[in-house]
Structure formats: structure tokens, C-alpha cells
């Protein structure tokens, strides 16, 4: 079995990102000749050419493209291992929960109150992030758990417990004709060319085709809707960030969205296990209108003690 050093992988990833040896060497804080020698040794050990060099710069070979993807995963895993180990050795370290800003606000409030009631204040911190960032934060070890959503978030490599499932609404400008409706269908939204639907990135970072603006943050879409430049379909509970210039209308045939708590698969953290038990008791047993209605399904076992 070939052993690869993290130093070699870091060198290669930097060159693959810069596609230029001199710029890569400057970024790494080293001279170019030893960097070139290190890559040449790596290619000899692997028995494949990773980079094609020419006067204009560098191009990845097919083998190099494969190594780039795998090297990034390996370096992320090493970084996460270090961070998780460091955090595990710190006494009374609070759990860090990642959640998309503006999403599941009422559920998050209930979770924080329940955790504070059972474990006292300071047991858990919240890290607000943008759309799709929770998975990266969990995998890097920067956070311990995350509030995520099925089917829109990347849940590969995580255990989960479902907290609630809810319908979706469309956020429209308050002056839009749809604002006077009680409900609407996806077909109506897609066929309404006066204001297009905003386009969020897919899990791979690419955007679906369409006339609507490409957005990445809640603040972007909030202002675009208020200006009459876009519409947004979101889970009903995410209306917490709705502006006075917005109106929400139920989308009758939009897929239901499940809000869940996620953590690294196979975790043995007693603190995470305790949090999962608290979170499993949440939801909306009263069935309030825009609140999540708990469906009691789980996507993985609680962490083992």
C-alpha cells in the first residue's frame, strides 16, 4: 500500500488550485524547485502523471483530477480529526450547533430553552451560516451538530433524528397579485413570468437553469423579493425572517421538508447523545399552523455512550 503524506497532498492541492508552480510556491511560502521535486517524487511513487506542464502553466491530467478530489477529502478529514481531538480534551467545552440563518427559528428557540433547562446556560453555542454550509462545518469538526433539512441538504456521512416535517410557502413581494391568494401551485409560480423564482445552488455548487437570479444568502433573497425581482419557495417556519415588504402564500404541491438534527455518523459523544434525547422531545404536538409538525421518524441511532 502506498503511503501519502499530508504535506505532499497539500502541495499538490495548492498547485492544482493555482495551475502555476511559481504562484503555488509563493502561496505555500517555499521556493519553487523543492516544490517541483516533491511533485515529481509523488508522481514516481504513484506511477502516473498528475500534471501536464507547458509554457503557459499547468493542466491536471485525469489522474490528477481524481487525486485532487480525494486529497481535499483526506486533508479535510485530517483537519477534522485534529479539531475534534482538541475539543474533546477541553473541559466543559460547549456543544456548537450550526444552523442556516433564518431557518427553523421557533424550533431552534425551543431547543435552546430545553437544553438550558436540562443542562444549564452555556451548554450549547449557535453558529449561524448560509445555505448548504452546515455539512462542511460538521465534516471539518468546526461544529458538533447541525440543524439541516431533507431533501435539500447533503446528509452523507451523518446520523440524524427527524424533528418535524412541514409544508412550504412562497415569499412574494407584498404588492404582487399572488399576495392576495391563500394558496398557489408550483406550475403557477413557474409560469408567472412577471417575477422569476430565485435559484439556489445544488449540492454540487452548480445552479439549475432558469431566468431567476442566482442567490447564496438569505439577505440577498430577502432584498430581491422586496424589490420585486424574485420569488422564493421555503419551509413555512422559515418565515421568521420575512420583511414587511413580503407576503407568504402556501404552495399546495411543493414537496414537504423535514427539519432534522445531524451529527457525524458513529459519534460516541455523551454530550451529543444527551442533546439528541432533548431534541427528540421537540416538535409541535399542538399542530400550530406554520410550526413544524413532528413526525417521529429517525434517520440514525443516537450516539453511543
TrEMBL record:
InterPro entries, per the entry: LysR_HTH_N, LysR_subst-bd, WH-like_DNA-bd_sf, WH_DNA-bd_sf
Source taxon at top rank: Bacteria
GO cellular component: protein-DNA complex
Domain HTH lysR-type: 4-61
Disordered: region residues: 284-305
Pfam families listed in its UniProt record: HTH_1 (PF00126), LysR_substrate (PF03466)
GO molecular function term, any single one: DNA-binding transcription factor activity
Coiled-coil zones: none
Claim: Nucleus is one of the keywords in the record: no
The keyword DNA-binding appears for this protein: yes
Keyword terms of this UniProt record: DNA-binding, Transcription, Transcription regulation
PANTHER family documented for this protein: HCA OPERON TRANSCRIPTIONAL ACTIVATOR HCAR, TRANSCRIPTIONAL DUAL REGULATOR HCAR-RELATED
Entry's family note: Belongs to the LysR transcriptional regulatory family.
UniProt-recorded name of the protein: DNA-binding transcriptional regulator, LysR family
Organism: Brevibacterium sandarakinum
Source organism phylogeny: Bacteria, Bacillati, Actinomycetota, Actinomycetes, Micrococcales
Amino acid at each position: 500500500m502506498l503511503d501519502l503524506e499530508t504535506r505532499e497532498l497539500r502541495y499538490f492541492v495548492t498547485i492544482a488550485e493555482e495551475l502555476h508552480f511559481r504562484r503555488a510556491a509563493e502561496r505555500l511560502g517555499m521556493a519553487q524547485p523543492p516544490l517541483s521535486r516533491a511533485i515529481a517524487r509523488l508522481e514516481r511513487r504513484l506511477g502516473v502523471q498528475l500534471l501536464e506542464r507547458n509554457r503557459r502553466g499547468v493542466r491536471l491530467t485525469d489522474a490528477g483530477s481524481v487525486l485532487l478530489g480525494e486529497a481535499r477529502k483526506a486533508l479535510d478529514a485530517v483537519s477534522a480529526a485534529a479539531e475534534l481531538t482538541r475539543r474533546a480534551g477541553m473541559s466543559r467545552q460547549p456543544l456548537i450547533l450550526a444552523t442556516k440563518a433564518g431557518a427553523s427559528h421557533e424550533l431552534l428557540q425551543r431547543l435552546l430553552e430545553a437544553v438550558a433547562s436540562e443542562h444549564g446556560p452555556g451548554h450549547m453555542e449557535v453558529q449561524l451560516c448560509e445555505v448548504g454550509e452546515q455539512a462542511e462545518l460538521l465534516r471539518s469538526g468546526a461544529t458538533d451538530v447541525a440543524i439541516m433539512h431533507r431533501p435539500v441538504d447533503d446528509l452523507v456521512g451523518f446520523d440524524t433524528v427527524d424533528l418535524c416535517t412541514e409544508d412550504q410557502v412562497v415569499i412574494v413581494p407584498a404588492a404582487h397579485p399572488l399576495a392576495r391568494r391563500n394558496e398557489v401551485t408550483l406550475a403557477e409560480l413557474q409560469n408567472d413570468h412577471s417575477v422569476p423564482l430565485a435559484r439556489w445552488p445544488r449540492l454540487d455548487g452548480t445552479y439549475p437553469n432558469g431566468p431567476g437570479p442566482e442567490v447564496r444568502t438569505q439577505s440577498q433573497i430577502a432584498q430581491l423579493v422586496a424589490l420585486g425581482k424574485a420569488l422564493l419557495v421555503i419551509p413555512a417556519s422559515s418565515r421568521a425572517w420575512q420583511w414587511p415588504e413580503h407576503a407568504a402564500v402556501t404552495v399546495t404541491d411543493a414537496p414537504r421538508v423535514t427539519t432534522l438534527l445531524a451529527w457525524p455518523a458513529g459519534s460516541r459523544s455523551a454530550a451529543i447523545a444527551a442533546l439528541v434525547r432533548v431534541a427528540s422531545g421537540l416538535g409541535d404536538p399542538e399542530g400550530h399552523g406554520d410550526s413544524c409538525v413532528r413526525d417521529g421518524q429517525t434517520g440514525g441511532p443516537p450516539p453511543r455512550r
